[in-house]
Write a structure and sequence with these properties.
The structure holds two protein chains of two kinds.
Chain A lengths: L2 H7 L3 H19 L3 E6 L8 H10 L25 E7 L2 E7 L8 H5 L5 E3 L5 E3 L9 H5 L6 E2 L8 E2 L5 H5 L5 H5 L5 E5 H14 L19 E4 L20 H27 L5 H7 L2
Parallel strand pairs in A: 1-9
Antiparallel strand pairs in A: 1-8, 2-3, 4-5, 6-7
Chain B lengths: L10 H12 L8 H23 L15 H13 L2 H11 L6 H25 L8 H4 L8 H27 L3 H31 L17 H27 L1 H40 L8 H28 L2 H25 L13 H22 L15
Helix pairs in contact in B: 2-13, 3-5, 3-12, 3-13, 4-5, 4-8, 4-9, 5-7, 5-13, 7-8, 8-9, 9-10, 9-12, 10-11, 11-12
The structure holds iron/sulfur cluster (2 copies).
């Protein structure tokens, strides 16, 4: 019997629920291919139109891209900016990189979330649902890219991160940033198609690109993909994250839980009856 | 617990009795009382600000360090310290070692209060605490979340500990019948409790498995859960020794001279247990060290800090425990217990705060207000603990019911 089979049999709450989840995930996979975005950093001119479009689409403060000088220092996404463009000085000159949630195939954040407030939709985008979140910030601990951001200055704080414009996708539109990009640096589509496009570009311009698509395998594959002319380390990407999906790191522990819930009590009872002092308990108890 | 008693005591009587017991006893203006009351008042004010203006208004938590002192110290370290309850109930009820029976009650009480207050600290740290109901009522169940598991286990374990302790409360209220019923539940609660403990003690470690890219490689290992579990054994034992030593001064009247001498005997036994558990822990640490090629990281501040933790705060107290137990020197054991407790604090804070995002420039240092709240939680717990032991038959084995 394989592990999943075992789980389904196991009669504990935890086990049943875990099995249900595993099943649900399988069905989702069959339903739809995940969508994503391909960012070609060689096309990006650092105009930050995407930042503006994102802020407008989500009711966040719109940056003054002409005058705020934000390209001077490396920025991270924040609770008011779901996406940021950074400039990197590289061997190939300045390169601009847009940064946002990677929409992992198997996200650490959703595996961490104990209320499924962080949620991987069947279409691929990873979204946050305010009615469920309790603000524990475990998603922030578990995201390999440190993307979820928390409102520390609110009595009713939200988690902020890119949701790939889930509300627009449901209406059949593309993400706001993709629509806004004047140089077609961003391309929206199914991951398989995006990977094909990326490979064709590398194939046609083997001198121009490094022969790697960031996000193809990183942490088990992500929805957001990147092409680059320089090694990704030079663009602030972490290249040491490995290809193991993050939830896998806790999976073994979680699989052990139903086993422990069965085996340990049985073991303890056995021990208890082996230790000769069987009567002791009741005796000790009554005048304890 | 509220069953009608033959002696004709009504529910109202019980309430009246409890209310009357709410009044403080003994001298009020002791140094401890003064300091703790000041801290608790300050803590309440800080928490009020926190719930109005958000976590950032009182804490230094930021986007790089989402979990700080309250989670790292009160919750994660506090729960390790509360490990004594499951260790002792195992030894006494499962292995049937009667020698330790006299301290089971107080240890279970300590465990129960630790969970109540430290789970409480968790709520203080939640951004949207009113939604804590969600993972309980199923909006939604995040079954593949370690935190989901830990949260449920905290809750269930509190119930188990409450059942384990309830006969004492029943005795206090002189509810003989209820006490009998509750006692029958003890073994079940004990077994359930030990199982839950082994899972959530290791689960607290498993929380950090997905922080792989953030924790310094000397502290990150896939065996964190196992290390947390084993270390909770000697953390719990050390806490029992430490707390017992203090209690035997403070609650002298409750304990009496017999309790004193038998407690020394108990301490020698506990020290032996702690030494063995620490040795096992050390062995695991060593295996991890070799298996994951950790020697290549032994340099600079982090290498030093790591060695300090595992030699100064694990190996040294381990030897001290063994030495003290062998030569029957209480003083050495007490020092060992204190070193061990510091070692546990350092280890848990390393994983949750210090070696977490160790290469970030803007490091997190808790604000003074975070410290005040941490101490508020501890002091509040001590107040409740004291209230209970001075009233309920926690220490005495044979007592007259307080409410006759
Ligand atoms: S990048 Fe982070 S926030 Fe985005 S899906 Fe992956 S784990 Fe979640
Ligand atoms: S902060 Fe909210 S979204 Fe993040 S893990 Fe906690 S409950 Fe889930």
């Amino acid at each position: 019997m394989n592990r999943r089979g075992f789980l389904k049999l196991a009669g504990t709450v935890g086990a049943t629920l875990a099995a249900k989840k595993a099943k649900a995930r399988d069905n989702d996979d069959e339903k739809e291919e995940f969508v994503g975005v391909l960012t070609d950093t060689t096309r990006c001119i650092g105009c930050r139109t995407c930042e503006v479009a994102c802020a407008e689409a989500h009711g966040l403060p719109v940056p003054d891209v002409q005058n705020d000088g934000a390209l001077e220092a490396e920025r991270r996404t924040s609770d008011t900016q779901w996406t940021v463009v950074n400039r990197y000085e590289t061997d190939e000159g300045d390169v601009f990189v847009k940064k946002q949630c990677m929409h992992c195939w198997q996200p650490g954040c959703t595996a961490a979330c104990l209320t499924n407030a962080m949620y991987k939709t069947h279409a691929g985008p990873v979204i946050w649902r305010s009615d469920k979140c309790m603000g524990c910030r475990y998603c922030m601990i578990s995201c390999p890219f440190e993307i979820p951001k928390f409102e520390y200055d609110s009595w009713n704080p939200k988690i902020h991160k890119c949701n790939m414009c889930w509300e627009r996708l449901q209406e059949g539109q593309k993400p706001a940033c993709v629509d806004a990009c004047p140089t077609d640096a961003l391309m929206f589509g199914r991951k398989r198609e995006l990977m094909e496009v990326a490979r064709v570009r590398i194939y046609n311009h083997p001198q121009k690109y490094v022969h790697q698509v960031y996000g193809e395998h990183e942490v088990g594959g992500t929805g957001w993909l990147y092409l680059s002319s320089v090694p990704f380390e030079q663009l602030g990407f972490r290249t040491d994250l490995g290809t193991t999906p993050y939830p896998d790191y806790t999976r073994e522990f979680l699989y052990a839980v139903p086993v422990v819930l069965f085996a340990v009590p049985a073991f303890l009872l056995g021990l208890r009856f082996l230790s000769e002092n069987e009567e002791e308990l009741e005796e000790g108890e009554s005048h304890a | 617990m509220h069953d009608e008693n033959k002696k004709g005591r009504s529910f109202a009587d019980i309430i009246r009795f409890i209310l009357q017991e709410m009044k403080p006893r003994g001298k009020f203006l002791t140094p401890f009382n003064v300091i703790s009351i000041v801290v608790i008042i300050a803590g309440v004010i800080i928490l009020t600000v926190r719930f109005i203006y958000g976590l950032g208004s009182v804490s230094n938590l930021n986007q790089e360090y989402p979990w700080g002192l309250w989670k790292g110290f009160n919750v994660i370290t506090g729960v390790a310290f509360a490990g004594g309850a499951y260790v002792l109930t195992f030894v006494v009820y499962v292995m049937g070692v009667e020698k330790y029976h006299s301290i089971v009650r107080v240890t279970v009480l300590n465990g129960l209060l630790a969970y109540i207050f430290y789970a409480g600290a968790l709520i203080l740290d939640l951004g949207r605490p009113w939604n804590i109901i969600n993972p309980i009522i199923g909006n939604d169940f995040g079954y593949n979340s370690v935190l989901f598991l830990v949260a449920w286990h905290f809750m269930l374990y509190m119930i188990a500990e409450f059942i384990e302790f309830s006969p004492v409360a029943a005795e206090w209220l002189n509810l003989e019948k209820a006490k009998k019923v509750l006692q029958m539940l003890t073994l079940g609660a004990v077994i359930f409790g030990i199982t839950l403990s082994s899972l959530h003690q290791s689960g607290l470690g498993a929380l950090f498995l997905m922080a792989k890219s953030k924790i310094h490689p000397l502290w990150y290992t896939e065996f964190i859960p196992l290390l947390f579990l084993v270390s909770s054994i000697f953390a719990g034992i050390s806490m029992v020794i430490f707390e017992g030593t203090i209690s035997h001064r403070v609650f002298r009247e409750q304990i009496g001279p017999d309790g004193k001498s038998s407690f020394d005997q108990i301490v020698f036994g506990l020290a032996k247990g702690a030494a063995i558990a620490m040795f096992v822990y050390y062995f695991f640490k060593l295996l991890v060290f070799i298996h994951e090629h950790h020697w290549q990281h032994i340099h600079g501040f982090w290498g030093f800090w790591y060695l300090f933790e595992i030699i100064g705060l694990v190996l040294v107290p381990c030897f001290l425990f063994a030495y003290g137990a062998r030569h029957r020197i209480i003083g050495v054991i007490r020092i060992a217990a204190i070193l061990t407790l510091i070692g546990i604090i350092v280890n848990r804070l390393n994983i949750s705060m210090i070696a977490y995002n160790w290469n970030v420039v803007d490091r997190y240092y808790p604000s003074w207000m975070e410290y005040v709240v941490s101490f508020t939680v501890i002091f509040a717990e001590i107040w409740v603990f004291r209230w209970i032991v001075t009233r309920m038959p926690v220490y005495e084995k044979h007592t007259k019911p307080a409410m006759a």
